[in-house]
Amino acid sequence: VGGAVRDVILGLEPTDVDLATTLTPDQLHEIFPRSIMTGAKFGVITVRHKGVVVECSVLRAASDSTTTSDSGERHGNFVPARSLREDLGTRDLTINAMAVDVKRSELYDPFGGRLDAQEHVLRAVSDPAELMLRADGIRLLRIFRFLVVNSYPPWTLHETLAAVLKEE
After folding, report:
1. Distance between CA 57 and CA 21 in Å, rounded?
2. Confidence (pLDDT) at 64
3. Please, which contacts does 6-12 make with residues 24 or more away whose CB atoms are closer than 8 Å?
4. pLDDT tens, 39-95?
5. Closest to 81 measured CA to CA, from 22, 15, 14, 8
6. Which of 56, 62, 54 has the alpha carbon at shortest distance from 40?
7. 165 near 157, Cβ under 8 Å?
8. Quick one: which H or E segment has residue 44?
9. Element holding 19 (H helix, E strand)
10. Residue 5: count of CB within 10 angstroms of its CB
11. Contact 55, 74 (CB under 8 A)
């Protein structure tokens, strides 16, 4: 899910791969005993298997009980999502809200992230876009990282995201 899918679409080598699952961290730890309970209370575990390290997270829904501190650190427990679409709907940008079903070799792209990646457009998944920024303070930094990293063509802001950034 996320950035690795985006990178492959852009013809880049992914720097890290994240997996989304319906298994709980405890269930994953039972299957992969060498895994690290990185953020089990948030539904995240780092699986180590045969020399490969992958971050796995439980499909997560948006939660009012999860708060974000001024530093962008998330507090509270995760709420499991009922579907992959619900999980992807909590992500920041459409280019990060895609997943691949490896078994079926299918791209799951409910928010148009593939086209946005190909056109180098940064668009919020949420509508209005400000909801995405309020959910996690780090997201603003991630947007600016895309804008300043040397890429060709350069990334541009979708008009709705640009309008919110002007207001903030």
Report:
1. 6
2. 56
3. 6/95, 6/96, 6/98, 6/113, 6/117, 8/100, 9/98, 9/114, 9/117, 9/118, 10/117, 10/118
4. 888 889 999 999 888 999 999 888 654 444 333 344 456 788 999 999 999 999 999
5. 22
6. 56
7. yes
8. strand 44-49
9. strand 18-21
10. 24
11. no
Type of residue found at 119: E
Locus of tokens 């990060």: 96
pTM for the whole structure = 0.84
Residues 18, 4 contacting (CB under 8 angstroms): yes
C-alpha dist (Å) from residue 161 to 54, 74, 84, 154: 31, 22, 24, 16
Q: What sign results for the dihedral spanned by CA atoms 149, 151, 157, 162? A: positive
Burial grade of 15 (CB within 10 A; 0-12, 13-18, 19 or more): exposed
In contact, 92 and 139? CB cutoff 8 Å:
yes
